[in-house]
Amino acid sequence: MARDGMPGRRAAGRRAPWPQLGGVLLALALPLGAVALPPAPPLPPLPPLPAAPREVSDAWISTRLRAALVPLQRRGAAQVEVNTLDGRVVLDGRVDNALTLEQVTALAGGLRGVVEVDAGALQVGLVPGAP
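== BON domain-containing protein ==
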């Protein structure tokens, strides 16, 4: 406990002794010379990852895209509903500007299994409930 009665606080002007102690230990160790340690043995190779399925479901695509859109929604830049049928993603809702519209369509188009992205129902303008 410090002198002022508050735990964890030091009196004004006092420094922790650790920097001085570190300097003393360094000064003692330098004349002794550095000791070289043998190199660590190489790590064994990682096992191969299981192969991802080549076919992805519509539910996987929708869920993955919804998760990717969360940061935009938290920022108030987008309020988008995602529907997927046979790899075709339909986006509905509002985005705050054309750049966000491009981001959303690029996110959707970049997902594995997406055949087509229809963003015709997305409107650019004020997003309801935006901060």
